[in-house]
Design goal:
Elements lengths: L9 H13 L3 H8 L1 H8 L5 H9 L14 E2 L7 E10 L11 E3 L2 E5 L3 E5 L5 E5 L5 E5 L8 E5 L3 E6 L4 E2 L5 E2 L1 E6 L9 H4 L10 E3 L2 E5 L5 E5 L5 E5 L7 E4 L3 E4 L5 E4 L6 E5 L12 E4 L2 E5 L4 E5 L5 E5 L16 E3 L2 E5 L4 E5 L5 E5 L10 E3 L2 E6 L3 E6 L5 E5 L11 E3 L2 E5 L3 E8 L1
Helix pairs in contact: 2-3
Length: 431
């Protein structure tokens, strides 16, 4: 268990006030500078640079891609001789274990706010909007910079991905649009896992469209530049977990898995279990025409091109041994990885056969990040364990210098970035 949060201090209060002062809305900037000046400052100068930044981003959203595979195949993570290159302090708030994102020359952390740090040395570039948790970078038509989409338990915001620009009068233009608010109730995740946003419910982006969960348990498609809603889908019991591939795949706890048309949200196919024992569908990921769903006992693989037909179920005959809940399957080459309550499992991607099991104690959210042929498992109180995805064998272990847990990392430029307590840690080593 992590230690109790630090007592509130004058320094902490001043830090909170500083954040609030810097979280400036577009409306405030308009009043200070005039709409024409703000439009220029916000970057309404074309789309090429915006799309190029997103396409070249090493880790543009939580879960890596819209399919939530959480695997960057072409990355070269550190493999040995691990060392801390730098440590960037985060605001003095209760630490989180949320995954950052990396794009341009930034690594951006959702730590009850949005903090942008320089990837080279960890220096702070911007700090905006407290209470945000989910992150995704999306190309924004009409802007030269992408939109950084941030989602909390009740709000989704579209921000200038550079953190905005100063107006010269003490204000910062960052917000492009906002939906939801404190009075709209919690997003899915509150129902299943407290008041936080679970892995698998955070925003994802594809082709200038943002997909996110909403307070009414719907999945919403929204324009990344304007925030305009394109469609909204509410199923039988909502849909808190989703991924985007050929379709938008929605997994509903205790109900069904649905494929939606990304153009209009209509249902393309629905998969329900027929054995009278509804599965606890939660985390879902999609890759190469397959949909991998956490069914509460393991992984079920569905054929996305054949009406959701079951391709395989992991470990038939010994499924009670695979104890899991909200984990999102990670797709790594010929393996599908799933993190459970007290272990991490590796399944054969073609057959569903369980290839390996590692008795570890993963932290929440249970979403194993992978880069190249390595997978990274944050563990309760122990730090970060790197496994060979094919075999489950340990490649290396990292223990943070304090007692705080480590969150799911991202890999960029051969370095690994992970939240560890009230800091972002950059690790490097031989590759």
């Amino acid at each position: 268990m992590p230690p109790s949060p630090p007592p509130t201090s004058d320094a902490s209060s001043r830090a909170t006030a500083r954040w609030r002062d810097r979280a400036i809305s577009r409306r405030d900037a308009l009043a200070a500078t005039g709409s024409a000046a703000v439009a220029a400052l916000a970057g309404c100068l074309g789309t090429d640079a915006s799309a190029a930044t997103v396409n070249a981003a090493p880790w543009p959203m939580q879960g890596y891609d819209a399919g939530r595979t959480n695997h960057r195949a072409d990355a070269k993570p550190p493999r040995s001789d691990l060392a801390v290159a730098w440590r960037g302090d985060l605001p003095e708030r209760w630490p989180s274990t949320r995954q950052p994102v990396a794009y341009d020359d930034l690594v951006v952390v959702p730590n009850d706010g949005v903090v942008g740090l320089d990837r080279e040395d960890g220096s702070e570039r911007f700090a905006l909007h407290p209470t945000e948790r989910g992150l995704a970078v999306a190309a924004a038509d009409g802007y030269r910079t992408p939109t950084l989409v941030t989602g909390s338990t009740s709000t989704v915001l579209g921000l200038d991905a550079t953190g905005g620009v100063d107006t010269g009068v003490g204000k910062r233009v960052a917000e492009r649009w906002q939906v939801g608010g404190d009075d709209d109730g919690p997003f899915p995740g509150g129902l299943l896992g407290g008041d936080d946003v679970l892995a698998g419910t955070t925003p994802v982006a594809a082709d200038g469209v943002v997909y996110h969960a909403s307070p009414d348990a719907a999945v919403v498609a929204r324009d990344a530049a304007s925030g305009r809603e394109r469609w909204r889908h509410v199923g039988e019991r909502g849909g808190g977990f989703f991924a985007v591939g050929e379709h938008v795949y929605v997994a509903t706890f205790g109900e069904s898995v649905r494929a939606l048309d990304p153009a209009d949200g209509r249902v393309v196919w629905t998969h329900r279990e027929r054995d009278g024992d509804p599965n606890r569908w939660t985390g879902v990921s999609a890759a190469d025409g397959d949909v991998f769903v956490n069914d509460g006992r393991g992984v079920t693989a569905l054929d996305a091109t054949d009406g959701g037909r079951v391709r395989w179920r992991s470990g038939d005959g010994e499924r009670t041994d695979v104890r899991t809940d909200y984990g999102v399957p990670t797709v790594v080459d010929d393996r599908v990885l799933l993190s459970g309550f007290d272990a991490v499992y590796g399944f054969d991607r073609e057959t569903g056969e369980r290839v390996w099991k590692r008795a570890l104690d993963p932290t929440d959210p249970r979403h194993v990040a992978a880069a190249g042929d390595l997978a990274f498992v944050p563990t309760e109180g122990d730090g970060l364990v790197a496994l060979h995805a094919a075999t489950g064998r340990t490649a290396w272990e990292f223990a943070p210098p304090d007692a705080w847990e480590v969150g799911p990392p991202v890999v960029a430029d051969g370095r690994l970035y992970a939240v560890a307590g009230n800091a972002l840690v950059c690790l490097e080593g031989s590759r």
